[in-house]
Amino acid sequence: MEDVLDEVVSSEDLQKFEQIFHEQLHKGNVTHKAQFEYAWCLVRSKYPTDIRKGILLLKELFNSHPDGKRDYLFYLAIGNARIKEYNKALHYVKAFLEIEPANQQVLTLERQINKRMEKEGLLGMAVAGGAVLAIGGLVGLGIALASSKK
Predict the structure, then answer these.
(1) What residue intervals traverse the membrane (predicted)?
(2) What pTM did the predictor assign?
């Protein structure tokens, strides 16, 4: 399975579903389907602002439309993981797995989120380690310069 966290919506799909959503919003009657499809596109956008907007729409659906809870939880997990809110993403994964513990797609998503957390944690430690080495080097250089002036 390709990494769903890297999947990006086409601009055509985003525009199409955004238009449908806004037309219905203007008429005052947004269907669950239109809101979900728009949110589904937004959480797969390459822009964090869009992803956050999609998360808000999905949360609203989750609270008001019980029939689609599985789908909402899945895409809430994806959206949060894409903006690096990994703990929230795992919260939604766990909530989904309470409903359907053997769902392979969600178990795979959980592994992908954990891999990203691990990778970014290691990268974070490497950056911190590099900063410590750089500071140590500067201090050493300062000491060497100070002793050479004596």
Answers:
(1) 121-146
(2) 0.79
The answer to whether 42 and 57 have CB atoms below 8 angstroms apart is: yes
Residue 74's domain is classified under what CATH number?
A: 1.25.40.10
**Cα dist. 10→13, 52, 76, 144 in Å?**
5, 18, 19, 57
Residues 6+ apart with CB under 8 A from 44: 7, 8, 9, 54, 78, 82
Length of the chain: 150
Residue 2 included in any domain: no
- The upper half-sphere exposure of residue 95, i.e. CA atoms within 13 Å in the direction of its Cβ, equals 16
| pLDDT tier at 130, thresholds 50, 70, 90 | low
pLDDT at 147: 63
| Residue 128 forms part of a structural domain | no
* Number of domains, the chain: 1
Number of H helices, E strands in the chain: 6, 0
